[in-house]
Design goal:
Blueprint: H1 14-27, H2 32-42, H3 51-77, H4 82-107
Length: 110
């Protein structure tokens, strides 16, 4: 993309400007120029709330740490507890269920 050296102007009512600011606030966008350029070029702005994804990453880290502990114990003692494996399987199933839900929500973004 080239240098932004072209000036584009349009008039809006007070109510329209107020609504533009409301939409910018909803999306967390501070620059009106950036917002209007994005809307004019692409027709949409998306604000992704990634808290669910961050929670899944945290769960995956914990499961990974547990799996490493179980592998270390199995290497040291030659055995592993069935309850530990069941617990890990249940957590992984929960993560997959949550991930499917996040993916469905992401796929609905147009």
């Amino acid at each position: 993309m080239g240098r932004r050296d072209q000036d584009v102007h349009f008039l809006a009512s007070k109510e329209e400007v107020q609504r533009i600011h409301e939409k910018m606030d909803e999306l967390g966008i501070r620059s009106m120029g950036a917002y209007l350029r994005k809307m004019a070029l692409d027709g949409y702005c998306i604000n992704l709330d990634l808290q669910d994804v961050k929670a899944l990453v945290s769960l995956l880290r914990r499961c990974s740490n547990n799996l490493n502990q179980y592998a270390r114990r199995a290497n040291e003692t030659g055995s592993i507890y069935e309850s530990d494996i069941r617990d890990l399987q249940e957590r992984l199933e929960e993560i997959w269920d949550d991930m499917k839900e996040v993916l469905v929500r992401l796929s609905s973004i147009q």
